Amino acid sequence: MPEKAVTEFWKDLQPIAKVFQPDALPEAYIHDAPTEDIRLYVPFNETVFSRSLWISPSQNRWCDVLMAKSAGLVNRHYHPHEVFAYTISGKWGYLEHDWTATAGDFIYEAPGEGHTLVAYEHKDPMKVFFVVKGPLIWLDEKGEASGFYDVHNYIAQCREHYTKVGLGADYVERLFR
Description:
By secondary structure, this protein is mainly beta. The protein has one helix and twelve strands; from the N terminus they run ββββββββββββα. The chain has one helix at about 150-165, and strands spanning about 40-45, 50-55, 60-70, 70-80, 85-90, 90-95, 100, 105-110, 115-120, 125-135, 135-140, 145-150. The strands form two sheets. It has a six-stranded antiparallel beta sheet, covered by helices on one side. Strands 7-6-9-4-11-12 form a six-stranded antiparallel beta sheet. β11 (about 135-140) and β12 form a beta hairpin.
């Protein structure tokens, strides 16, 4: 039950009885998604970390808060599917574009885009909420495919990290939907 309404016009409204269909999974509620608890951020590399919020192994999708405490880099990659991003704090961009995102900025990445994500030095850490669908195709310096990273690689990386920090490998499974 949510917090009890006191003065809101809808305070006497009753919740619906049939919330979920028989085969539906419950919602994923994550308190303080861009938390400061570093144990919850999986190292993506030496400079960028990912706080997993929602993972769909069957759809090859995930949502996370990508974070860099100072200058950071996610290697060149290509997206065969769309990506959505909302900037929570800090400053970041793609070397291939003419914009720099700061708190409050929204970015839609169309399928078929290759880029190099960089985080700038800033008084606040870069924290960006991403919705990623499908794999990231790693690119070499010429823009040619050199590998991939998908939801299954992401899950394995989460399990390894959560084990290392004492949360347990199965911690990631609470995020599956």
